[in-house]
Amino acid sequence: MRDRNRREPSIYAAWERFIRGDDHVSGVRPEVAISWHRCRERYRVDPHLTEAPIAIAEIDHTPDHDAVFAELGFRAAALAHDVSVAGGVVTITDGTGRILASWGDQVTVSRAEQANLAPWFCWSESAAGTNGMGMALEAHGPVLVRGAEHWCEAFHNWVCAGVAVRDVVNRDPIAVLNISCWRSQLPPLAVSWLGNAATKTQCLLRRRARDSGAELVAAYTLARAGTTAALAALDTAGKVVIADETASVLLGVPAAVPALDPTVRWTPGVPGLTGAARYASRQAARNPDWVGSTQIFTYLTDEPTPITLRPVFRTGQLIGTLVEFSASDEAHLPAAADETPRAPQDVPRSRRVVATRENRTVLLRLAEVAFAESEGNDVWLSTDQGRLRAASSSLDSLGDELSDAGFLRVHRRYVVNLGRVREVERRRGGELFLVMADADDQEDGMVPVSRRNAPAVRRALEI
């Protein structure tokens, strides 16, 4: 491994400093530095690990998963010859990082087996640190890990590239296609091969998701004929596929317009509903007969509204939930299913928000972040250290990650730290603005609140 590190002295030197506790990583790609932070701070992976552990976690494979594995297996087999000629190995993992199959050069395959780069071993970041398969599970798009960029020193002689195939509805990873080479460069077209394979497989999933959306609309239509209560149909990610006129007003979404394409479905402007729907999906996956009820604060109302959640299946696979706005004697959802943010003082102090400044990774305490703002394809953080680009590329994912940490989505472009709100300004027409504490500029420190989110903001701030 020293041969590889001699060719990458600056990265190896940064790796050595980082494993000793230095937080300032210079000369390392931001996505790699962020992965190192996860390995050291969140997963606590031993950087001197010499082989990947055997896979323990198992997930239930749905028909969609099996279709993905079959499609990727076909594509990996087609790549195997070219990868073998380049002295590489192609692997497929499931959504936990467990390798399901491998193909490639027999000499390299034998060497890979010494590090457990082989079926039934786990290569998630939490198990084996920074590597192509593990990073792909954490990222949205192809990733490349070279030499000393690997978290574990024993893997520094490897170069690998991976891409995850994700569920088009809930964005959870289903599988990873990866190419690895020992002490040599990847084939020139490796990254484009991977991207093309993932894109074509996602198209298969998108067609199946549209079919599931049509089945969900059919279930909604059948249920609509048998009830006078407001009704909506949500997919497994908690997004609205269709809602009647009353439910659309309560949820703040268009009425009676089915969204079969998973990329154009609506996120309800209702705190707690998405969490309740996801909880219902988990329960229904274990018990198909499960039906539950709870109360939520709906759009533009100040009192909680009772709802009943009924799972919908297609050929034995859960495809969504019908939400009926009425009381029920069914099982009540626990309070943990509610997404109401906790007070900042209840959050563990070890949690950090990761940002980047030029070629440095900045670890921010939650209290240092006033708010996050989406701008184009980037998310920017207003912090005590100035305006920094967030490591997360999605305001939705950042909001979900911090929803239990005293942060609240107040606008389609803003997520706010409730502990940093100093004043609430009401303007003509009823518009609300949050004035953030310690802002250097009064205008820069003002965050608009959308009408949809105003009731949630008032409840969270108890005003």
TrEMBL record:
Keywords: DNA-binding. The keyword DNA-binding applies. Coiled coil: none annotated. Residues 353-463 form the HTH LytTR-type domain. It comes from the Bacteria. It holds the Pfam family LytTR. Signal peptide: none annotated. GO terms for molecular function: DNA binding; phosphorelay response regulator activity. PROSITE patterns: HTH_LYTTR. PANTHER family: STAGE 0 SPORULATION PROTEIN A HOMOLOG, TRANSCRIPTIONAL REGULATOR-RELATED. This is DNA-binding protein. It comes from Cryptosporangium phraense.
